[in-house]
Amino acid sequence: MGIKTVMVIGAGQMGAGIAQVCAQSGFTVKLNDIAQESLDKGKAGIEKRLDRAVEKGRMSEDDKNATISNLTYTTEMKDASDCDLVIEAVVENMDVKTKVFQALDDITPEHAILASNTSSLPITEIAAVTNRPSQVIGMHFMNPVPVMKLVEIIKGLQTSDETYQSIEDMTKELSKTPVEVNDFPGFVSNRILMPMINEAIYTVYEGVASPEDVDTVMKLGMNHPMGPLTLADFIGLDTCLYIMEVLYEGFGDSKYRPCPLLRKYVKAGWLGKKSGRGFYNYEN
Ligand code: NAI
């Protein structure tokens, strides 16, 4: 059965963007959050981005209105009872996610696919709390969702080829590029990105170079659009530490040990841009 109606759970940074791109591509979308305030914020963000796209000539007024009419907002998860696909984008916490998946397993039709946008948690473990592990899959969008072209599609141990194919087709309908990945810690994106960021932090920790100089080397020498320490500040140093812990624990290999300086900054509350201070100072 084809995917027509989608619920996105969690109207935060990622969920609102995912709902927007699905609605823009003609899917009927229900955006859900437990907090009305988050739903209101998500809706305002979507409408602001659509207005800007029209102003810049990237979208017609008709397409904007069609996108808006494809979207509804709800605090009731039971509204997923007629959905073909649910994309979960709640906080990165296994307990919260498994509760959501158990509830969805009861609410959604038998044919529905349940996807998670998790950036680091094992899909196999999330799938195991449902009675439909073959229909559970990872759909890892990148931030900001309306701009970034990649979707990492993660196959859990029990994910069926049919489920994978439906999600790959849907990803293409969203005008994104799918990449097939098996379920291992960090998938591909964070397994490569986070150790690079961690190594950049070690370089500062060991006094090899300043944060500015490390970033300059990677920007001008490797043609990266943003240096690794600036990127770490944008992602959030708590998130970077969390993902390094997932890699360290998941592989049991010392090459993934989080840098002590990263731990120290997180303990100090220096979490990057969102807290005003990380490797750079954002307060003023
Ligand atoms: P966020 O904190 O901005 O949004 C999470 C939202 O989920 C909040 O609005 C919260 O009210 C809601 N929520 C929490 N529990 C809920 C529940 N039981 N039912 C319904 N809604 C609930 O988080 P963000 O950054 O959007 O991340 C969401 C997921 O996406 C996480 O798994 C994260 O790892 C992943 N991700 C994040 C990226 C990023 O750059 N921020 C990139 C790729 C994936």
UniProtKB/TrEMBL annotation:
Listed Gene3D superfamilies: N-(1-d-carboxylethyl)-l-norvaline Dehydrogenase, domain 2 (1.10.1040.10), NAD(P)-binding Rossmann-like Domain (3.40.50.720)
GO molecular function: 3-hydroxybutyryl-CoA dehydrogenase activity
Top EC category: oxidoreductase
EC number, UniProt record: 1.1.1.157
Pfam families found in the cross-reference section: 3HCDH, 3HCDH_N
Functional pathway: Lipid metabolism; butanoate metabolism
Key words of the record: Oxidoreductase
Record domain 3-hydroxyacyl-CoA dehydrogenase NAD binding: where: 5-183
Residues of the 3-hydroxyacyl-CoA dehydrogenase C-terminal domain: 186-282
InterPro entries linked to this entry: 3-OHacyl-CoA_DH, 3-OHacyl-CoA_DH_CS, 3-OHacyl-CoA_DH_NAD-bd, 3HC_DH_C, 6-PGluconate_DH-like_C_sf, 6PGD_dom2, NAD(P)-bd_dom_sf
Domain of life: Bacteria
Family label: Belongs to the 3-hydroxyacyl-CoA dehydrogenase family.
Database matches in NCBIfam families: PRK05808.1, PRK07530.1, PRK07819.1
Record-given protein name: 3-hydroxybutyryl-CoA dehydrogenase
